[in-house]
Design a protein that fits this description.
- It contains 4 helices and no strands.
- With 81 residues, it is mainly alpha-helical.
- The protein has a domain of 52 residues.
- The longest helix has 15 residues.
- The mean pLDDT is 92.
């Protein structure tokens, strides 16, 4: 195993310490288990899927502005001023 250090808030440390005592396992084991769980349940979306989703959304919405494609920078700047 590789040794590493992490920083926890007081509340995180207290909760983890209490739970580790209740479960009779080390805090390190709980952290490793949490990381394993995160890595197995996270959803990874490929770049191809992201592009496909963006392309499917293209043209679905109407702004009413005929020059939006050409002047999108101006409209964006106007929105955030």
């Amino acid at each position: 195993m590789i040794r590493t250090q992490i920083q926890l808030t007081e509340q995180q440390a207290e909760s983890l310490k209490k739970y580790s005592a209740e479960m009779n396992v080390s805090m390190a084991e709980l952290i490793r288990d949490a990381i394993d769980n995160l890595m197995t349940t996270r959803v990874v979306i490929s770049d191809a899927d992201k592009k496909k989703k963006a392309m499917e959304a293209a043209g679905r919405f109407r702004s009413g502005n005929r020059d939006l494609a050409r002047d999108h920078d101006w409209y964006l700047a106007e929105t955030f001023e």
